[in-house]
Fold this sequence. Notes:
homodimer, globular, alpha+beta, 19 helices, 11-stranded antiparallel sheet, about 775 residues, 5-stranded antiparallel sheet
Amino acid sequence: MKALKNNLHTETGWEIVERAFDPEQQVTSGSNFMIGNGYLGYRGTFAEEEAEDYVACIVTDTWDTAEGSEWRELCNVPNGLFTRLFLDGEVLSAYAGEAQAYERRLHLRQGSYHRALTWRSPSGRGVQLRVEKFASYANVHLLAMRYTFTPQEAGRVEIVTGIDGQVWSLNGEHFRTYTPFTEGELIGMETETVEFGIRIDVVAGLRVHGPQPIQTEIEQEERRILRRLTFQLEAGERVTLEKMVAIFSSNDVAHPQQQAVKDVNAALQAGYDALLAAHAEEWDAIWAASDIQIEGDLEAQLLTRFNLYQATIATPTHAPLPIGARGLSCQVYQGAAFWDQETFNLPMYIYSRPDVARNILRYRYDTLDGARRKAQRLGYYGAFYAWTSGKTGEELFPDYFFTNVLTGRKIHNHFNSWQIHISPDIVYALWLYYEATGDWDFVVAYGAEIAFEVAQFLVSHVYFKMDKDRYEFIRLLGPDEYHENVDNNIYTNYLARFALQKALIIFERMQKENPEALKALLGRLGLDTGTPEAWRDIVERLYLPQPHPESRLLEQFDGYFQLEDITPEALRERLIHPEEYWGWPNGIAVETQVLKQADVLQLFALLDDAFPPEVMRANYDYYEPRTEHGSSLSPSVHAVVASKVGYEDEAYRYFLEGSTIDLYNASRKVMSGGSFLGGIHTAAAGAVWQMIVKGFAGMKVVGDGLYFAPALPASWKALRFKLVFREALVRVELTREEIILTAAENNALTLPITVGEGQVLLPAGARASLDL
Amino acid sequence: MKALKNNLHTETGWEIVERAFDPEQQVTSGSNFMIGNGYLGYRGTFAEEEAEDYVACIVTDTWDTAEGSEWRELCNVPNGLFTRLFLDGEVLSAYAGEAQAYERRLHLRQGSYHRALTWRSPSGRGVQLRVEKFASYANVHLLAMRYTFTPQEAGRVEIVTGIDGQVWSLNGEHFRTYTPFTEGELIGMETETVEFGIRIDVVAGLRVHGPQPIQTEIEQEERRILRRLTFQLEAGERVTLEKMVAIFSSNDVAHPQQQAVKDVNAALQAGYDALLAAHAEEWDAIWAASDIQIEGDLEAQLLTRFNLYQATIATPTHAPLPIGARGLSCQVYQGAAFWDQETFNLPMYIYSRPDVARNILRYRYDTLDGARRKAQRLGYYGAFYAWTSGKTGEELFPDYFFTNVLTGRKIHNHFNSWQIHISPDIVYALWLYYEATGDWDFVVAYGAEIAFEVAQFLVSHVYFKMDKDRYEFIRLLGPDEYHENVDNNIYTNYLARFALQKALIIFERMQKENPEALKALLGRLGLDTGTPEAWRDIVERLYLPQPHPESRLLEQFDGYFQLEDITPEALRERLIHPEEYWGWPNGIAVETQVLKQADVLQLFALLDDAFPPEVMRANYDYYEPRTEHGSSLSPSVHAVVASKVGYEDEAYRYFLEGSTIDLYNASRKVMSGGSFLGGIHTAAAGAVWQMIVKGFAGMKVVGDGLYFAPALPASWKALRFKLVFREALVRVELTREEIILTAAENNALTLPITVGEGQVLLPAGARASLDL
């Protein structure tokens, strides 16, 4: 068993194993050991724990505004797995008595959680405990738990298990009612949200295997419905409880209570093992498409799979719903999509599970109306996507987000109003999808409307400088959020032009190939065939900062190089309070060149061939030491760009930084600017795929084929993954000496693949090996 | 004697008389009783006082940066009038013993200061003291003092008098050397400034009248050169000292020491009375042109003359130098010109002493190069005048001005970079001068270059919105400094158009009348005859916010009406610290509709006929209760606009507020945002003329003549003043019933004058009376 950091271990790279419990890491380990399925996320806490231990079960599509708050966020629903064990009245707890042979384990391969220990109570009695659970992928509404205990001494054991409605919520109370009920042998609790009156039903059923309880009672406490089972056991007698919990909301089905009852009864009928098998089969399919194998570096292997796992369970696949910036690990960032979704999570799906990618883009189509309303509210038109996008695409981000910890006053952040790159980012993602899949039908049906509306938004935003004969974007906030209110942010300007170019291409191709669809779309949008002339004019005359002829540097925004030049470390010395927000309006970074993340490098990560390598290298050298990495999105971008410019060690260092943000709690900021920011950094998890495939393997699309420029970390013996390109599947195996490409038997396409100077055409079933 | 506030009195409206000394008012009374002549300002402190009592003698054209500071400001030079009296070793002081029959008096009529008291020492000895002084207008380098004392008991009296170089300085040490010297019977001190090495010489000479000292010694202390005179006197023996001080710097003459010695010797020769007579004659001429007589309201009479006096002594007339925002009363605001100069001080001179007005505008011509350099430094071209303009027009305003009193960090204010209205303001002033004087030669020689360069600056700043087919000004700070970073500030947009219109008019008239001068100018500026097309295009398509069709409201800037609507009083409750700065970036007013001053009203005050009265009234009603008057410029604007819209009581209330800012210390802010802001509010002083002439008399220029719409305050029986219009002098006498106009005998012009419906043509020497 390989020891990692923070009491964590792995055996095969398919599991994380915790050997000691550290109460200080409660927020983090709760996230790391979580189970989920894109519908719900259930944190990896202990069955006997409650709100103060950050127990949570976050359910998607339950956006509602907490009472007296301005935050519309997902609900933390009553905890259906709540279970306590009493040894002659002494309650089993991680905080009392003594734990022996403790182990908490997350099986990444099959998405299940295991906990085992022998607990010795303060008075000296012992019990062996084993808890297993999973959030089913076969039925995403289902949580299943198997709770097995064996007392070491004869005596009375009580189990109190039921539904705990005493849940915590980040921004206040989400439920106006908590209604416990029983239905046959099942217990349940129905809550109703305060804003929209969404009904959420949590129903639990129980089977006892082995010795049966001598007594069973239903108990109710405040917001709890519980079943108390009293056992009289001999030493060594083992009891197994199978607990099945179903969760439905009135946003899912018309009669959530009925459906939950039905599903729990079916689950009890099937039993834990059968349900687990069905669930594991789904994971088999996911991993078959998504797994990345690393040989020679077990830690990297585990980190990669851990992040792929977290990115996967954060992604709703049952409906077009957003991927939350913290997935379903907590309520932070409102369970809503940011640009993270397209920029950091989507690429993995585009090249491994394009159906999931399509679902994500479909979500952006479905939320166009929200984006239109936002544009209008702010004096623009077209589609200005929400910075924080829930189900409808309404802007969920509040005008006042951070708190000035020195004054207690709220800070007016402009992430929602000035960070306009979100709209072109979505067109970039659309194009990435189209380029990799060739799915023109999707573009015609959905993508064109997105692209045209984003183009119109850009028309409504851009300014023209008569005397310089150029367009400019004014008052922006780039990905580097420490610098608000800047002009001609290089990332924004380049992405905006990209989006306008693609809108033009789509328009022109539709004129030729889909004239009726185009006509209908223009009619619906109130545009005419002259509209694209405005897009073309901006494409041709938009100001695009160019590399300095000598230094080759690109300026992040107008005037950036005039700002104070100081290192992040020296700047940090100026903090008065450790939680101070570094950005707008007067954080310590605002008037300096210190970046939260580097927009120029972000641009390089997206636009593969826009700048020559020597420009990328000069800018990497300049911006890297000035970047504070205050964003979890930053290290992965550095890893990808470091790979591009040939900095292998640096790329690997950033790979480790980016992939350990959650597992090793490497993110320095659970609190920032007075805001709780705990939970899984979903985008960083998704970006692990990019660090490996775009970075170390150097993959990009060139023309109608794939291109590789591999640069494996020194310790890696081999790297293996699969890619889907235009419906053709190719298996990639990389060593330091060669790249082996294997096309699937049923590919319809012969794939052109370029590796440095070498090129192969890979027909179905073919295998090619190229020396590196 | 009429009692005013704060122990102040007046007899005739020509003097302020203080009857009791209040040490708490030291900063204020030092300013109020100051003497000066546009070259130097000498604060109205006591002869025996020193730095800690805010003694200061500020000399113009001595801009230099204090050691280790970023502040280029005027120097406080060694105090040549320093004089202490010892009664048998007990030093006379306002803080020890007892003062009887105390009086401090400022004679506004002749610009002289008097102090009288009988002082009883702690041990019970008495002395009668009388001190008179003035800063000569006949020779602006000269300070004269007459110091008379009469001991009440026989005994030894010592006088220590000399030059005190232990001066205070707002932002650190300005002198690298202090060199005391004697020259014949004179003593002197030469200092040399740290940045530019300006030599400043203060030379003092003394004559003793009456009993002569039994001993005279020269003494030196640190940075002091003193003469100790020991008298042995009988009770009631009176001694009079006449002390003459001359001040010259190497910016004034090549050999300042030589010149100062020469002038002091000449002054000693002439004697106090003769010098005073020559000085008073200059004041006679000033008052003959500038005085405003108010009958029936002695307080208003005194307030008016006090402010005219302060505005006058703050204005350099000996050379084209700026009027400091605090005049020469202290170093605050660096002795530099702001927009205050043109907008609040200039109008009085235009209509009463046009030669002084021309000198002020000439200063703006002389500083065009500084304005050009500023424009270039910030990425523009043309003339972007300094927000804080010293001798050369370089921007003196630092990027960091206020301090966040809650964190101790400096605040990045953008007064210097975003408050672009300063440039069109100067063109407005130029036009006001031209309109009132008809001085086309000045326009051709100087004004055209100012107007063209400002127009070019505006071209380089403005943006065009293609989709709205209009120009916009983005990222502004209007006169209301609580709202930085706004778009289409109404004041800025209207003034910018005004400036561009006038540049076009000047260009076109020069094409016809001064083609050679125009050609030369365009050549010098690198412009061609096509250049004005860009100005015309902006004039025609610039976005000018219009009154709402129903509410008639004008929006101060884009989005202002969406800000939180709260009263200044309620807002004030949110202060954590009383000295917090209310504005950028996160002061309490930033996100609210509370204004420091109202830009819409400021616009009404300048553009007489741009908006109909009902629009002005609706906007006055809206903006007045939302205005905090954090600026001393605000009350006068309210007074003028209140007069325009027929709110007579309100106009009078604001007149009192605006005219008592200094005399009654009504300015609430000696400290703001951690900055000392004491001293005379020169613009508020200058604005008293506007409140009366533009406000109560309702004067404006219409076509080629003058127009009046009088609305006298209820208590005023009569109001009299003179105006110069196109070199014709007219005396205006207003009562509530009639207006009497008398043209000077030697006028060349027949003046058309309109009063409501009535019109007269007033030839030289004519007198007309119109009923009101």
